[in-house]
């Protein structure tokens, strides 16, 4: 294949997917602003630990000012906080008919579509727990599954070509419902903030029936916003977002949480908790806050989402502590 691919962000997602493609012989340039990370990769290659066997690959890296030439595919693999900066980096180097792909959490494809049009903006949803071990070293414990699609749901030649490329290295599915896939994943991303109000697992924080009913109501508020926007839900490995539809009875929604709780582990900690502990900015303003803002525009009452957002923002700002008291406050708001 002659396509040139530009990946903005050598984090766990962009690095692992792009690293697999680079190992397969594709022409990929990786861009990152983390000087230590880039220096380690330039010196020792990119080390990627995956279930089918760890590997090290020599890749082309650049800082934003070092990018040269035009690319047929531009992939944005940074946290949603940095989408605007990533667009400023990639757009001058995107070919006239090039695809622009969001590999991010949140609902970013509409932003990309405003820049390049409906047939060139691609959403990608990834279910692949992964992390950065050290500069130049990424890891995941699962093979991963990719969904790609245009917001209009049609399959274009460009999308088919991207599918052929990705399918060589990871299981990839073209979806005519990429917005539904992204919103379904967004419910789980929002759960990450709910589960990060104490340095404890959900198994501990949401043990009582009142706590689990509050969690069910939280899910229901998120789903209500998606429903109002016409989202078609897909079932996740952990649960089916449709089970939390507002039309379902409170007992049925509680049963869905109880079934989900069977998979909770005592040592599990959610990603936002770890980010706050490491003083790394989270994506809360582009995920949970996005849902609350959309709910406001639609006139949907969201007391629990709003309360979780308020508490988490205070924790991230250092104005509030992690702890059980946060869940007591949420349970009180749910009554």
CATH class of the largest domain: Alpha Beta
The beta-strand count equals: 12
Domain module count? 2
- Give the terminus-to-terminus CA distance: 58 Å
Tally of alpha and pi helices:
13
What structural keywords apply?
globular, 335 residues, N-(1-d-carboxylethyl)-l-norvaline Dehydrogenase, domain 2, eight-stranded mixed β-sheet, alpha/beta
Question: Can you put this structure into words, describing what you see?
Answer:
The protein is α/β, with parallel strands linked by helices and 335 residues long. It folds into two domains: 172 residues, Rossmann fold, CATH 3.40.50.720; 155 residues, N-(1-d-carboxylethyl)-l-norvaline Dehydrogenase, domain 2 (Orthogonal Bundle), CATH 1.10.1040.10. The protein is 43% helix and 18% strand. The strands form two sheets. An eight-stranded mixed beta sheet has the order 5-2-1-6-7-8-11-12, sandwiched between helices. A four-stranded mixed beta sheet has the order 4-3-10-9. The mean pLDDT is 95.
Short description:
The chain is an alpha/beta fold and 335 residues long.
How do the strands and helices of this protein lay out in sequence?
Elements: E1 4-8, H1 12-23, E2 27-31, H2 35-44, E3 46-49, E4 55-57, E5 60-62, E6 71-76, H3 83-90, E7 94-102, H4 109-116, E8 121-127, E9 130-134, E10 137-140, E11 145-149, H5 157-167, E12 171-174, H6 178-194, H7 202-205, H8 209-228, H9 250-261, H10 271-277, H11 288-298, H12 303-316, H13 324-334
Parallel strand pairs: 1-2, 1-6, 2-5, 3-10, 6-7, 7-8, 11-12
Antiparallel strand pairs: 3-4, 8-11, 9-10
Helix pairs in contact: 6-8, 8-9, 8-11, 8-13, 12-13
